[in-house]
Design a protein that fits this description.
about 500 residues; FAD/NAD(P)-binding domain; seven-stranded mixed beta sheet; binds flavin-adenine dinucleotide
Length: about 500
């Protein structure tokens, strides 16, 4: 135990980032006996649009001790087995990025290599046919994977406002103190520059040893008071706008998110139990707001339930996520477009690293430096994965031509070069996405390697054909036998209203 432990944490902001941090810190650091205070302003409100997640999010809820079915009922959620991409590589193309792999290696060679070999010999089955989550998703089925079964995993879609409410209840029950108010001023130590107190507009003063900036795009502490610069990634990810609108549910909830590419961006559709969440993400340099809104509304499957909401953002992140005695989480720390639903994941990673590197009141700069190094790498890996969706597309509109022509980050260039030469993805440190995910996006977009792994030839062609056909049939059978996603929801997680 440190001789100078942190006695109090003050979190400014009560959106997804603020309440996730408050809940998890109260749970994991209870042995430190510190007070946790969260300040938020109802007048400002929250963005609250993050509605799709990735499988690692399940760990967050598990650590909090949240029962999955109860969580799904409370947030009117549905299950997510992956993302169906429509019109991405070329108009008319579809492919699936499932939460799973393409099966066990055959003769120590990854299945997508055998798939490429069979393709050269005239096989036409798409790579998706070897994906266990796709076998369920394509038929609108769902059954939870056995946790010991590596073939697939699942995540959730949920109502972000209901999730924020559930987290708040959880945090307050765990002893987190909530203060309603709006930031007016910040008192800093004249020598170290560390934050000492937040002064609210009604004069309330909230002290703390350690501060979390969860104020969303306002970045009140990390940006406006500590002046940590923003590293701009717009030149790689030019989408800077979004419009979101909920709509009446048009069909039974699909167990996947849909992402449809359009002339200068893409549209999401997220099914919930009581409605669908929809939105368009676009580059304002290639498409104006009116056109984007018309495209979005034109694609809705059901009647809109509210007036569309607009958002502006910039891809990139703070040069330091942790500065002095302040750590930024959520939008305050940076932004990556929600193409792979990684916003909440990045918050979760940030909180996890914070617990790993939790400081004491000496605030040794090496601790912050290491936190910043690790978190930066995690952001950069996800950034590269998202850029890959764009830069391998063959679509012809100017936005897509520019994505193909741009100079990509050297880490991504290296990955794509190795992929072209070998059909393998070199994994670096801090990766969120493993080889099957890269294969899903690259093969799905038609970005094929120049050759398959020659080791695949050690298996006679007919033996490979037979083994791969058996896999397809096994998966198709499992897909037919599984319960409908809607039936599963009604049986286990039906929301009260
Ligand atoms: C269009 C869009 C779609 C997205 N979709 C997904 C998705 O599908 N999946 C996913 O994982 N992520 C998604 N994200 C990202 C996700 O929405 C965010 O990660 C998440 O909402 C984090 O929000 P936040 O808590 O940082 O900020 P906010 O929700 O903006 O909360 C900020 C908080 O700070 C408070 N505050 C601000 N200024 C002050 C002040 N001066 N005084 C007091 N309080 C203040 C506010 O009151 C509020 O409580 C999406 C983002 C966008 C823009």
């Amino acid at each position: 135990m440190s001789e100078t432990p942190i006695g109090s944490i003050t979190i400014l902001g009560g959106g997804t980032a603020g309440w996730m941090a408050a809940t998890m810190l109260a749970r994991r650091l209870s042995h430190q006996r510190m007070t946790i205070t969260l300040v938020e302003s109802e007048e400002i409100g929250i963005i609250g649009v993050g509605e799709a997640t990735v499988p690692v999010f399940r760990l967050f809820n598990e650590t909090l001790g949240l029962d999955e079915h109860e969580f799904m009922r409370a947030t009117r959620g549905s299950y997510k087995l992956g993302i169906k991409f429509c019109d991405w590589g070329v108009v008319g193309n579809t492919h699936f990025h499932g939460f799973g792999d393409y099966g066990e290696p055959l003769q120590a060679v990854a299945p997508h290599q055998h798939w490429m070999r069979l393709r050269q010999s005239g096989e036409t089955a798409p790579i998706d046919d070897y994906s266990a989550p796709y076998a369920l998703a394509r038929k609108g089925k769902f059954t939870p994977a056995d946790p010991r079964d590596p073939r697939y995993s699942h995540a959730y879609h949920f109502d972000a406002a209901l999730y924020a409410r559930a987290l708040r209840n959880h945090a307050e029950a765990a002893g987190v103190r909530r203060v309603e108010g709006r930031l007016a001023d910040v008192e800093q130590d004249s020598e170290t520059g560390h934050i000492r107190s937040l002064i609210l507009t009604d004069g309330t003063r909230v002290d703390g040893d350690f501060f979390l900036d969860c104020t969303g795009f306002a970045a009140e502490l990390i940006g406006k008071r500590l002046h940590v610069p923003f590293e701009d990634w717009t030149h790689w990810l030019p989408c800077d706008s979004a419009i979101a609108v909920p709509s009446v549910r048009s069909a039974p909830p699909a167990p996947f998110t849909r992402s449809t590419a359009v002339k200068a961006g893409w549209i999401w559709r997220i099914p919930l139990q009581h409605r669908e969440g929809n939105g368009i993400v676009y580059a304002s340099t290639h498409m104006d707001d009116a056109e984007a809104e018309a495209i979005l509304l034109g694609q809705l499957a059901g009647e809109p339930l509210a007036t569309p909401r607009r958002f502006r953002f910039k891809a990139g992140h703070r040069a330091q996520f942790w500065h002095g005695n302040c750590v930024a989480l959520g939008f305050a720390s940076g932004f990556l477009e929600p193409l792979e639903s990684t916003g909440i994941q990045l918050i979760q990673n940030g909180i996890g690293r914070l617990i790993e590197y939790f400081p004491d009141r000496r605030f040794d700069p090496s601790v912050a430096a290491e936190y910043n190094r690790v978190v930066r790498v995690e952001w950069e890996r996800i950034r590269d994965f998202i850029i890959a969706h764009y830069c391998v597309s063959q679509r012809s509109e100017p936005f897509w031509q520019a994505a193909r022509a741009m100079e990509i980050p050297p880490t991504l260039r290296y990955k794509l070069d190795v992929w072209r030469a070998t059909g393998r993805i070199p994994l670096l440190d801090g990766e969120s996405y493993q080889e099957p995910s890269w294969a899903a996006i690259l093969l799905g977009n038609g970005f094929l390697p120049k050759r398959y792994d020659p080791l695949a030839d050690t298996l006679p062609l007919e033996a490979a054909r037979g083994a791969m056909a058996r896999r397809r049939e096994d998966l198709a059978r499992a897909g037919r036998a599984a319960p409908d996603h809607q039936a599963y929801l009604e049986r286990h997680c039906k929301a009260a209203h």
